[in-house]
Specification:
Layout (H helix, E strand, L loop, with lengths): L1 H29 L3 H12 L4 H13 L2 H18 L3 H25 L20 H18 L5 H24 L5 H40 L1
């Protein structure tokens, strides 16, 4: 019953994120997201100021591949050597590498050019979905998921979720502010990574519960 509970909950979230991505992708392909994108870009960039530009560049750096690799390496070292959580390390690698590969394939599939309204930095490559947004959602999302499983205090879990949302949302905002992504790129990136993370987490929980099931039955028989 526990096996079904974890799988069904994670799978429902996966379906929700997947449907959201399909909807956004269709709007992007058919040009239906143009009005929304232009309105949000104008609103976000209307607040341009030196402090906000510095903040946006800093957040964009936090979401860059170089820093993401550094955070990932540190997390892997902690999982492997300090906590001895090798199965969780496998999940962490699976989510991170899978998200990166998925982003590359989706960018090649959609071939969407980046916005040219008002760029504050230069960025090469295709636009949809946002690589920074996907990497941030996957990295901070899987770290939050792994930490959540070992937290029991409500306040700790609340702070964890707040930090994850602020970091992920801030990185997405920075890409719009800097003029290198459409809002639909960012939201699409969140949806794609969310689907991948939820599917991976559902499979992880299903595997763990399936693996522990014979052990639980064996202990029950002994009693």
């Amino acid at each position: 019953m526990l096996y079904y509970h974890y799988w069904s909950r994670g799978f429902r979230w996966f379906i929700g994120f997947l449907l959201a991505f399909i909807l956004i992708a269709l709007l992007v392909k058919l040009g239906g997201a143009r009005g929304f994108d232009d309105a949000v870009i104008r609103f976000v960039q209307s607040m341009e100021s030196p402090p906000l530009t510095a903040l946006a560049k800093g957040l964009s750096l936090v979401g860059s591949s170089k820093l993401a690799v550094g955070i990932s390496l540190l997390t892997m070292l902690i999982l492997f050597f300090a906590l001895k959580h090798r199965l969780e390390l496998a999940l962490f690698l699976w989510v991170g590498l899978g998200s990166q590969l998925l982003n590359t394939l989706l960018k090649l599939w959609f071939h969407r050019e980046r916005p040219t309204i008002h760029r504050l930095i230069e960025q090469a490559g295709y636009s949809f979905p946002s690589g920074h947004s996907m990497a941030a959602f996957s990295l901070y999302g899987v770290i939050a998921y792994l930490l959540w499983r070992h937290m029991h205090s409500r306040s700790e879990r609340l702070l964890l979720i707040l930090f994850t949302v602020l970091m992920t949302g801030g990185i997405g905002w920075s890409r719009i502010y800097l003029g290198v992504h459409y809002p639909s790129d960012v939201i699409g990136g969140y949806a794609a990574s969310g689907a991948w993370l939820m599917l991976s987490a559902a499979c992880f929980e299903a595997y763990r519960n399936h693996k522990s099931k014979p052990h639980n039955i064996k202990n029950a028989r002994k009693k």
